[in-house]
Write a structure and sequence with these properties.
A: rod-shaped; B: mainly alpha; two-stranded antiparallel ribbon; 7 helices; 2 strands; globular
Chain lengths: 87, 230
């Protein structure tokens, strides 16, 4: 290990990529929300307005974990607090 | 890194306490200036508006916007909390303009957690206030004694997680779009930088920006409604 800083940065990039993997399940959840909303609208077209609003809120809640992963990846890449220990 | 927050000036108050004038401060000032000028124009024009006649032009647009927002607000937060509507409407105007201002190349103020966290904390204060004002005993019971007394720490954590999730949602979406666009401008070949970014701007600034502002307001209103009545 001749270059601990380079090693740490490389590991940080891999960690950021792993943090973004939760996008898979987040997208799956949002797809489920949207498909349920489409089914609801197809069954009851006159309730389109309130179904759309509820769907947007549901999508926002499902998105939270994905956004957490994104924020963690951004912190790891650009504002990593642990890199200062190496110097 | 073109998307880091630049610091323009540093005002020292004491040795350890200082104010930073950053990109976020500058674009917040720009947004505030636009909103102020718009408000003054509307105030001056509204002197010869007549409520008894048919509305037209700007008056029509503004009445439609306020009506739509009022319907949304009263449907989700209830009639009892109607006095909080002006705050949420102005917050909505501020957020939507801050997210849309990325189109003209200014760094959006909401791409800074120091901007979104105070906004989310103000929403947090408002929905705690709504719960404590409308049904103090039932609200405190729902936090401290809901299934049993032992669950109080979990409920308190849940309440604290609400503003953090709200602020991270707005911040992460706006910052993610901004990083993607600045990566495109910094790294893509020159041929891709002419017409192609317009579509990405349309999605990340117009669609996602307006949607995230709407979601922030919508979730705050829903939390107010949930706290106020059950």
């Amino acid at each position: 290990m001749h270059d601990p800083m380079g090693f740490a940065v490389a590991i940080a990039h891999i960690a950021a990529a792993i943090a973004l993997l939760n996008g898979i399940l987040t997208t799956l959840g949002q797809g489920k929300v949207a498909s349920a909303a489409v089914e609801g609208i197809a069954r009851q077209p006159e309730a389109k307005g309130s179904i759309t609003t509820t769907m947007i809120i549901g999508c926002a809640f499902a998105e939270t974990s994905g956004v957490y992963g994104l924020v963690i990846a951004i912190i790891i890449l650009f504002a990593n607090p642990l890199l200062s220990f190496i110097g | 890194m073109e998307f880091a927050i630049r610091v323009f000036a540093r005002l020292n108050i004491t040795d350890n306490i200082y104010l930073l004038i950053t990109d976020t401060t500058r674009s917040t000032w720009i947004v505030m200036a636009i909103l102020l000028v718009f408000a003054i124009i509307v105030r001056i024009k509204s002197r010869n508006w007549d409520a008894s006649k048919k509305p037209s032009g700007l008056q029509n647009v503004l009445e439609m916007a306020v009506d739509a927002f009022e319907k949304l607000y009263k449907g989700n937060a209830g009639e009892k909390m109607a006095f909080l509507m002006p705050w949420f409407f102005s917050l909505f105007a501020f957020l939507i303009l801050s997210n849309l201002i990325g189109i003209v190349g200014i760094r959006p103020p909401t791409a800074d957690w120091g901007m979104t966290l105070p906004l989310a904390v103000s929403s947090f204060v408002l929905f705690q206030f709504a719960g404590l004002k409308n049904r103090p005993k039932a609200y405190l019971k729902s936090i401290f004694l809901e299934p049993v007394f032992l669950f109080a720490p979990i409920n308190i954590m849940g309440e604290i997680a609400k503003p953090i999730a709200l602020s991270f949602r707005l911040f992460g979406n706006v910052l993610g779009g901004m990083i993607l666009l600045s990566l495109l401008y910094g790294m893509a070949p020159l041929a891709l930088q002419f017409v192609f970014p317009a579509f990405l701007h349309m999605y990340f600034d117009l669609a996602a920006g307006a949607l995230q502002a709407f979601i922030f307001i919508m979730l705050s209103i829903t939390f107010v409604g949930l706290a106020a009545e059950e």
